[in-house]
Structure formats: structure tokens, C-alpha cells
Sequence to fold (313 residues):
Amino acid sequence: MAFESIDALNKPVPVQSVRTEWLREAGVFLDILRLDELDPEISGNKWYKLKHNLIAAKEQGKSVILSFGGAWSNHIHALAAAGHRFGMPTIGIIRGEPGESLSATLSDVTNWGMKIHYLSRSDYRRKNEASFLDQLISQLGLSARDVHVVPEGGSNSLGVQGCQEILRAGGITSGSYDEVWLACGTGATLAGVALTASEEMPGTHIKGVAVLRGGGFLRSAVDENTIQPLDNWTLLTDYHHGGYARTTNELLSFIKSFEMETSIPLDPVYTGKVMFAIRHSLAVNQGNDLPRKVRRLLMVHTGGLQGRRGIKI
Fold:
């Protein structure tokens, strides 16, 4: 088969204006950077995390890309699609034991040619240990020199480098927005966006919404990824709704009402929690005038919609 060029996804991303009753009441304008519309398979911020990893693997002559994730992982899904599309074999190391049938996500990735290998949850926790990783690669019949390893979620320096392109892809420039809101699972996207904003959008503050319980550790992860500490971002840790991939009836009800009003799909793991946080923040501050007269918001829609198939909304 003929493989596509990686440059095929270097294209503008649409920005959509949104008006809801709660936005009107708060007197706030909200736009959404629709990364979910970049590509039907390699969706959202996952592409930006993978882009430079793919380029590096090809330039270094690696024969396979290996990464980690769960049975509904957006990262694994995007990696398998990218490998299939751009001609790079992939291996997905999947957390947990195999079930009686494949999840819809894993069904997709195997159809795209990804080889999957399951790890027990105890072994999976060792995935970042160099000795364990070498043992795993050897067990798979491979040599470490032939494998490009991408951390879970694509959170490495190459992933951060790609995430620095996100705002530029939407044509976002200085003075466009008071705040930019986005989901935070590993810290790579928040770090990349904060770096770009610090250089090109002075006065714009980045709000990261941690989607997992106890997400305070992500602050140090962001600092590590930005090399030097930046003062243009904040991490909010109270909107996880029970933890990673956990939901509440309140969150699901909000997602349904938002989709009915705007026709914009959200997922309960990432983007739904961000939009809920925006709505809650505006409600708390309503009548008190928002700090720094915040009136223009941008929400980065990081995709992840394929994972909705595993959660009933």
C-alpha cells in the first residue's frame, strides 16, 4: 500500500464560537479549538504528541514504535492509526489481562496492524524502569536499538515539542484570549501550550484541568517539561469527578445538555471535565466580576471521542 506523508496532518484547525445560556449569563465569550476535527482517526492532541516521535523513529531507522495504554486508550488508538497510515509498525503494551473480547479500541488497533501485548497491573507499574523495559523488549523478540519507545500518553520531550504547535494550528495569536483551558492527564499538552503562550501570547493564562484524582503531582511534571518554571499557567485539581475515567451523574448530565445546546460532542474522561470546570468557575465568580476581567476564553478540544464507546452517556 502507498503510505501517506506525515506532513498530511500539518493543516489548520478550526476554531468554533460557542454560546450557551450560562455563558450569556456570565457575559463571557467562549471559542473551542476543534482538534477533534483534525482527523477522524488520529484525533486531537494525540497527533501533536506523536508527530515528532514518528519523525524521530524514521530518522533513526527504528523498525517499530512501542507504547503503553489501557484497553480504551486514545493514545494507543492514535498511534496504531498513525503507524498504519505512515508506514511504521507499532506495538501496544496494554494494562491488565485480556478480556473475553477486545474493546472497540483494541479491535481498531489490531485491524490497523498493531501488535498488542498485555501486562498485569503490577508489571505495568514498572513500565518506566529501564531494566524492566529492556526485559520486556527482549521478551517480544526485539532488540532495544530497533525500538522507539513512547511513554504512556506520549508524554516526552518530543510530545511537548509537538504540543507547542497546537495554538499555532488554530491561528491563535497574542491578544486573542484571556485564558486557554485544556485537559491535563500527563502534563505534556499543558507544558507545550504554556511554552507557546509564554513566547507568543503575553497576558494569556493557561488553565489545566487535572482529570485524575490526586493530580497535584502534574505541577512538577509540567515544570520538568518546560525546563524553566513559567508563571502563565494554573493546574486545577478538583474536577476529576472521582478519578481517571470515572464519571458522575452530574458530569454526564452536563455533557448531554451541552451537546444538545451546541451540537459539539464531549467525552467524559477529558473534554467534558474541562467544560464542566469552565461552567463551574464562571458560576462561582458570577456577580463578583471575574479576576483580571476575564471575558474571552478558548477551550482546547483534545479529541478522545473514540473512548466514548466504553462509557454509556
